[in-house]
Every structure is written in structure tokens, then in C-alpha cells.
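Re: your question from the hallway

Yes, I did run it. Sequences:
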Amino acid sequence: MNSEDDHDQDWSCDEEPLLLEQGVRRDWSCLPRLAVNFIYRQLNAIDHTQFRSVCMEWRGHTKKREKIPLVILADFNQDGTLKGLSLFDIIRKEAIVCLHRATFLPVRHDYYLGASHGWIFTGQIVVHEECDYPFESHRVLRINLNNPITGSLIILPLLGPETKLGGRVYLLGRPDDLEVYLTVIYYVANEKGADVHFIRYEKGWPDVQWTTFSLEVKPCDVVACFEGALLCLL
Amino acid sequence: MATIITKEQQEKEKMVTLVSSDSEKFVVEQKVAEKSHVIKMVMNCCGIESPIPVRRVKGDILKSILEYCEKHSKGEAQEVMEKWDKEYMDKAEKDLVFFHDLMLASHFLHIQELVDLIAVTFAGMLKMKSPEEIRQKFNINNDLTKEQEEHIMTTFGWAFQPI
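Structure:
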């Protein structure tokens, strides 16, 4: 069968991989380029990333995916907390339901506070027993940053005690610096205007506290972060 | 005067013999062998009279592949085929060595439907697994540098854009 040689280009490693005997270990990193190509097209955004992170061969045979944002699907309980959270992959047209358990089990009764830079933000009212606040103010807001792709979870210092719910979290800073250093803003409208809480959070530096200032004029709903500034349309 | 060919002879002419790498012989209908693009090309250029060696595929794999090709040359209802394919893959994925060789052989013989089926099955085996879990299951060495690993895990800004 002379045509054999014509097909050698499809093999990435072993010249005669099919002649291996039973019991000989198969090298899964050395799959034909075409095979890897067929496989990775079947994978959703998160599985695709995990696949590319296995070894150099698989990484070399696959392209980065188009950077099309995932859609966040959320289901809420009657009290407004999250009942379930999943992502929808527009390219594969499939829901990514089972996210990292370690990250997403605690999120289930949190309030949804937004998402950006590849992270999802949630908040939880916790009773903080050690603080000096009056009894009724022991309930403080704990903001969590979840990265569903890496499974990372950042728990920010407690914010309270009068913090209102129903706000949004914004991040200032470059995404790839997030785990080392980031500025987080929690923006929440009140009766008169809005409260803006911010914190410069560094990993391994837990003593850092939130700073709060208030806007006297009530802004519109249009709030955004751009080049290190929080922009509100008044 | 036209030669009269009996039905039996006609059937016989449509049979082709394939020989695996370990010299196992398989006699199958031409339309079954044609499912492989590579074998089809060989039959087109060399005919089907003499046995066709499939030197890179072992007997047990070739047998399984021909079983697949035979089923898929019958033109049965889609539901029946899907059920059959699922059972075929369930069996194949239990033995990773066999599954690996089946994947390579389907690519080598260029049987597109089987290539797709195996890709979907393999992707299913990778779903919801961390890179480390995948490496353990398939016995793969991690040869990525620390920088590469970190880069992969920290460049997901696109995943959720601010609204």
C-alpha cells in the first residue's frame, strides 16, 4: 500500500504507532494533530482551557479560542439569593453546568453582585461576632470573587455594618494582576445618592480596610470602570 | 455475445480481502471496505482481486473497525445507529489501549464518521476534569513550564466582560 507514506503528515510523533503490542503503554500526548483538532472542537470554553493545559503537544496542536464572553445564567431564590449558577458557551451552544464545586457550592445562597474580567462577584450577609458594632449591626457583607475557570476564590475583608445590598462590584486594574493586587469597588445606590466602597486588596495582607464615600446626587444606572476610574453618569 | 454473470458471481466479485499487520485476513463486501477513504482509493487504483494489506492496523482493531463499517453500510434508521454507536463506544472506551489504537486507526484509514464519533467520546472523557486529572487518567507528563501554566490560568479577562 504505497499511499501509506502520503498519510504520514497526519502523525505527530510515532512513525508506526499502530503496531504497538498489547501491554505497551500508549503515549496519549502524541495523538495525531488532526485527532487533537477534532477533539478540542467538541470542548466548551472551560474544558478547552483545561485541555490546552495538559501538555505541550496538545497545546501546540490547538488554537486559542475566540474570546467570546460566556453568558451567565442565574436562578434566584425568593429572597433574591442565588439558587443556581451556570454559564452558557455561545460557540458550542451548550450550558456549562457543573462548575468547580469548591467555588460554587458556597455561592448558592449568596447575592449576585456582577461579573467582569473573567470573575463572578457574589455577596453574603454574615453575622460578625467579634466586631464592636451594636447588636443589630453585627450583620456585615462579605464579598467573594470567584473565578469559574481556575476555581480560584478570593474572600474580601468584611464590609459593614450599614452596607446595603443590591449593589454591584467593579474591578480596577489589569485582570492578570488580580490574585496579587487589585482594587475592588462596591457601588450601591441609596435614598439620596449612592455609596461607593473601595478597597485595595493585596494577597497576604488581610488587615486592609474598606473606604467609603457617598455621592450626594443620585446617578443614573450607568456605571462603568474605565482605565482606572469609576465613571457614573449624573 | 455478452457474458452471462450469475448473481452469485456478482456477489463474489464485490468481496475484498483485507490483511491486518499481524496477517489476519478479513473478507468483507466492497461497500463495507469503502467506508475507509484510504482503502477506497487503493481499491480504485489496484482493484479488489488481490488482498489489500492494512499494514499499520492490527487484527483486533481492524476487526472492530470493519464491524463498525459493516453496520454503517446498511443504511439503517438514525435512531438505531445512534444506539448502536453508543454501545460500540461504551465498549471501546473501557479499554484505553484499545480506544487509543482505534482512534489512530480511524484517522489512518480516514473513516470520517468514526473519527467524529471517537472525538465526541474522547471529549466526553475529558469534560469537567482538571489538567492534573487528565494527566493521571492518560498517564501524560506535565511538560509545561510554570510560566505557561500561570499564563493559561490568568488570561480569562474575556470570559465575562463588564456590563
